[in-house]
Design a protein that fits this description.
The complex is a heterodimer. Helices cover 41% and strands 15% of the residues of chain A. By secondary structure, chain A is α/β, with parallel strands linked by helices. In chain A, helix 1 packs parallel to helix 3. In chain B, 48% of the residues lie in helices and 4% in strands. The longest helix of chain B is centred in the middle third of the chain and has 20 residues. The chains are: A alpha/beta, B mainly alpha.
Chain lengths: 463, 584
């Protein structure tokens, strides 16, 4: 494992009036270092001792591990309806984690916001969080509405999405070779930002461009549609894509299907099912699932699921399988936010979400507008993971292994990415900061940041 | 200067680090040695000049993050750091940054000179340098930079004025070498959208371009032209106008010969280097400078001008990328295979170009050929009444390709082309193609409602061509045939190239007369009812609605019967400026 730590020397707390003078009676122990490296600050404690049983070390308050501990304590206090303790910890956190601090502080600030949001919905903590809530801005409120052009350049800043785009495009191009008609069903959160490059690749394929049919799942009407938010109708967006396709000499048909992950995109699947009846095999059907599949409820969604034993997620994959697609590409974040308890999710999210905060320093200057948009988006995710429940909690990431099990279970076999695809991804990563990397895991490609798994891309065909 | 320093200090100046740096930076001047400013003398020597604000060397801080705790930490004032020409020749007043360079220079004046030698006995201490900017992370000794040049460049880049401005784009640089490096590649590796935004990566540009209003405006800007076919025309038309036009302005007579193999390779399914070349297309012509069709000659010139600017003259550019212009042609083929919507503009591009070069009284035989083409286009007849345009695209395409560019211009070259075509194209059996097309036709008509594959028309044509080929040794015909083969071959039968409601092929082989470079088409369009040539795949709509094919929710692919599709309109407006008046 790479170490990205620097010594947690005796740096004074950034807010001298913060932790020192509170007299909280809050003592925390900063224990032995964990194996997990942190972007800054290297220590984290082993499972939380009771807050009152150990001693706080102010010098280490700024370390990620300590912050995680405080957040965990806070979450526990909220869950236990302990208003006093909640208030105290929120106060400490609010002072050691300014929203404009270093990456760990901003990470913590986002979690703090999410916990405040959660606390403000829970009986006993409602009142006490009011004060903090005033000081803490909810990131979710500030999710930016992008124009298409802005979103294009925004997505372009980091490989977070581009990685999946490139891997998927390469796999799709391989899979539809020779097909005169290609039907791409785009299940994505990024509003077709992948499609222009796909059109471009199809336009220059050796046997001439296919007729491209694009069906886009529009989940914007859902109560918690994940960001980014597009400030443009899909009709308008589609017109632009069709126009662009024409400029590249590709015939294209664009369709939008309003649908919802809460019912496993059933309206979309139904419609595709009808269409498939009249097809004769000249059309290659491709599902491009980019960061949207995890919004379909999994087993932990509980009451949402129709049957106790079968999740909507499994149902969806099986119905996709029944459509006999030429290819299904799944690009998702390699994380697991499906834990039933908030503390479990907090730990998992804290151990993943540091990456976007750590990486952002390499491509956006502090205080820039785009950086605010970016961090608001990450903050939205954190808040969704921590503060939302039921169908509104759409950030239900599962890791690569789990998705692989699901896909196999639904009757798919993995399709390995070619060397060309891997090469293209590597070339793209070279255009970004040095921390990004790519590795192969089984047949999949994995985007890494400083050696940590970030996003995987996997391709599947009916087995 | 250096004489202020003790011998030991001077010796330290040429330590191992210096040797490294010298190798890296001045590989071509091995004799040249670097000289450190005396300000950085070790503790034993105090050498602070008047302009050295911070000469005192702090005690070495043992920071864990510092690679070498024993390194000397040097803090220089901004002035010292940025100083140039500190060492001036007393004869010619030429200034040098390093004394060693001055010493070498003095040799040329026959003045006494002396190069400092490294003292092998001196213990070499590594030096690290602080950034003088207090807010900078490199102001901390723990984050000091390892070499003087590095800290100089860092200070310039991060805290200095960006006084070097690229004259081609808006970029500014603080370090001259950065500016030089950028200037070398500016415009070649960058992609410029019409909106003015620059991109260094192609897929960034592609994505932006797709959503940028500039592209939509290009499409919308094209004015109605011609009484019969007034409508908007797609950017494509203008696009390949500039593209094809610029390449056909190629002054090199070898153009055809160079271009042909590659064109064919692509058409035949090879297409390996396609993407790379398209890069150039995209960067320099496809998306830039899309001229409105009314003034083709003017825009042609403009396009070329632009190439000249961006690529050191059209000669160099076209030599380097000889296939540039013709690349559009493979696209056209793919296009035709892809389906009506995309094919149409592309096809017309060619026609457009031809008319274009005629208008601009082309410097070569192209002009002549083009005139022939105009005539060809005139031969297009439509049977379908007011509507129908996409069939015309086919006509334009064939007339253009068959008569104009290749055989019309220079028969010898065309001959070469044809030979290569025959050699390189995968010769698909026309019968097989026909079958395939029929298959497609039936399948597409299943939900398309009476539109059948015009590909059968093409294929019939192709078939006929093959039949005639042995007897007619007409290069143009050979060429046409190969083109058509590749067209069909690329399509895999996927074309829904319109076709009349009754399924007749749109090209009547009987009307095709290669000897005269004329192509006549009758349109097998079935009156009113099934008059919809454009299938919904196009996503282009009728009556000015650009996206009729796009439907929300459950909208089945439908194409309104009798609607003049956007495509058709586009085709017509594209054609009108050139020959619309004479079209029937």
């Amino acid at each position: 494992m790479m170490q990205f730590t620097h010594a947690a020397v005796t740096a004074p707390p950034l807010h001298p009036n913060g932790a020192h003078g509170l007299g909280l009676g809050l003592f925390l122990d900063v224990g032995a270092p964990r194996a997990r490296p942190w972007p800054a600050g290297g220590f984290a404690s082993t499972p939380p001792p009771l807050p009152t049983s150990s001693k706080i070390s102010l010098g280490n308050l700024n370390s990620a591990g300590c912050m995680e501990q405080l957040l965990v304590h806070c979450a526990n206090a909220i869950e236990a309806n302990d208003a006093t303790l909640t208030q105290q910890i929120l106060w400490v956190l609010n002072n050691i984690a300014p929203a404009d601090g270093d990456s760990n502080q901003r990470l913590t600030a986002a979690f703090l916001c999410a916990l405040v949001t959660r606390a403000s919905r829970t009986g006993a903590c409602k009142a006490v969080t009011a004060a903090v809530a005033a000081a803490v801005e909810s990131a979710a409120l500030h999710v930016h509405r992008f124009t298409a052009v802005d979103l294009a350049s925004f997505v372009d800043l980091t490989p977070w999405h581009r990685f999946g785009y490139m891997a998927a495009n390469a796999a799709i191009l391989d899979a539809v070779e020779g097909f005169p008609v290609v039907h791409v069903v785009d299940l994505s959160t990024t509003h077709c930002m992948q499609i222009p490059t796909l059109i471009d690749m199809l336009a220059s394929r050796a046997e001439g461009p296919p007729i491209l049919r694009l069906t886009v799942a529009d989940v914007a009407s859902c109560s918690s549609a994940p960001p980014p938010v597009l400030d443009m109708s899909y009709e308008e967006l589609g017109a632009k894509l069709v126009n662009f396709a024409r400029s590249r000499n590709v015939s294209m048909d664009f369709r939008v299907v309003p649908t919802s992950p809460a019912d496993a995109f059933s309206s979309l699947v139904d419609q595709l099912r009808v269409q498939q009846l009249v097809l004769d095999g000249t059309e290659a059907l491709v599902f491009n699932c980019h960061m949207l599949m995890h919004t379909v409820p999994d087993e932990t969604a509980g009451s949402v699921s129709l049957a106790q034993s079968v999740s909507l997620r499994t149902m969806l994959l099986k119905s996709l399988r029944a459509l006999e697609p030429a290819l299904v590409v799944v690009a998702e974040e390699d994380a697991d936010f499906t834990a039933g308890d908030v503390v479990g999710r907090l730990r998992a999210a804290f151990n993943f979400m540091w990456i976007p905060y750590d990486a952002v320093d390499t491509f956006l200057p502090k205080g820039s507008e785009q950086r605010r948009w970016y961090e608001a988006e990450v903050g939205w995710k954190v808040e969704n993971v921590l503060a939302q429940e039921g169908v509104d909690r759409v950030e239900r990431q599962e890791d690569r292994t789990r998705w692989g099990q699901r896909m196999r279970g639904a009757g798919f076999r993995p399709v390995a990415f070619g060397e060309e695809a891997a090469g293209e991804v590597r070339t793209m990563l070279n255009e970004h900061a040095a921390g990004w990397g790519m590795k192969r895991e089984d047949d999949d490609l994995m985007l890494t940041w400083k050696g940590h798994n970030v996003v995987f891309a996997s391709a599947w065909a009916p087995s | 200067m250096a004489s202020n320093s003790s011998a030991a200090a001077v010796a330290a100046l040429f330590g191992i680090r210096d040797g490294h740096q010298q190798d890296q930076i001045k590989p071509l001047l091995p004799l040249q040695q670097q000289h450190r400013q005396p300000a950085i003398a070790p503790p034993s020597a105090v050498a602070a000049g008047p302009d050295h604000a911070t000469a005192a060397v702090p005690p070495v801080k043992k920071k864990r993050t510092m690679p070498d705790p024993d390194a000397e930490v040097i803090a220089l004032s901004p002035k010292t750091l940025m100083a140039t020409n500190r060492f001036v020749c007393e004869v010619c007043s030429k200034g040098f940054q390093r004394e060693q360079n001055l010493q070498l220079h003095r040799r040329g004046h026959n003045l006494p000179w002396k190069l400092k030698q490294k003292d092998p006995n001196q213990v070499q201490r590594r030096r690290v340098y602080l950034c003088p900017e207090p807010t900078c992370v490199h102001h901390e000794p723990g984050r000091a930079l390892g070499d003087l040049t590095g800290i100089k460049k860092h200070f310039c880049r991060k805290h200095g004025e960006k006084k070097w401005k690229c004259d081609k784009c808006a970029k500014r640089y603080a370090v001259q070498s950065d500016w030089k490096a950028h200037s070398k590649v500016c415009g070649t590796r960058e992609y410029r959208c019409d909106c003015g935004t620059l991109f260094s990566r192609r897929d960034s540009f592609i994505t932006h371009r797709a959503f940028c209003d500039a592209l939509a405006q290009e499409s919308a800007r094209l004015p109605p032209a011609g009484h019969l076919y007034g409508a908007t025309a797609a950017a494509n038309m203008a696009l390949s106008l500039s593209q094809v036009g610029s390449s056909f302005q190629d002054p090199h007579g070898q153009y055809h010969q160079q271009a042909s193999p590659d064109l064919l390779r692509f058409g035949g399914g090879g297409g390996g280097g396609m993407a790379a070349r398209l890069d150039h297309l995209l960067s320099s012509s496809t998306f830039r400078n899309l001229p409105p069709p009314q003034a083709p000659a003017f825009h042609l010139g403009q396009t070329q001008q632009e190439f000249g600017d961006g690529n050191n003259g059209p000669h160099a550019f076209l030599q380097g990328k000889p296939f540039h212009g013709l690349m559009q042609l493979p696209d056209l083929q793919g296009n035709g295979s892809g389906g009506t919507a995309s094919s149409a503009p592309g096809l017309f591009n060619l026609g457009g170009y031809i008319a274009n070069s005629a208008n601009s009284s082309g410097t070569s035989s192209h002009g002549h050929a083009s005139q022939g083409h105009m005539a060809n286009n005139d031969q297009i007849s439509e049977g379908g009444g007011g509507g129908a345009g996409s069939e015309n695209s086919g006509a334009a395409f064939f007339s253009a390709a068959g008569g104009g560019n290749f055989p019309g211009g220079d028969h010898h070259q065309a001959g070469m082309y044809s030979e290569q075509a025959m050699a390189m194209l995968p010769q698909m059996s026309a019968t097989a193609l026909l079958q395939k097309a029929a298959q497609m036709g039936s399948s597409t008509s299943a939900d398309g409602g009476g539109s059948s594959s015009i590909f059968s028309g093409f294929l019939g044509q192709s078939d006929q061509q093959q039949g005639r080929a042995p007897s007619m040794v007409d290069q143009g015909q050979m060429h046409l045939q190969s083109l058509m083969n590749s067209l069909a071959g690329g399509s895999n039968g996927g074309g829904i190239f319109g076709g009349g409601g009754n399924g007749r092929g749109m090209i009547d082989p009987r009307l095709y007369d290669m000897d005269q470079h004329e192509v006549k088409f009758t349109q097998g369009r079935g009156g009113g009812g099934g008059g919809d040539v454009t299938r919904d795949f196009l996503g282009v709509g009728g009556r000015g609605d650009v996206i009729r094919g796009m439907s929300v929710a459950r909208g089945e692919h439908h194409s309104g019967g009798g609607d003049m599709s956007f495509l058709e309109a586009e085709m017509k407006s594209a054609s009108s400026p050139f020959n619309g008046g004479r079209m029937q």
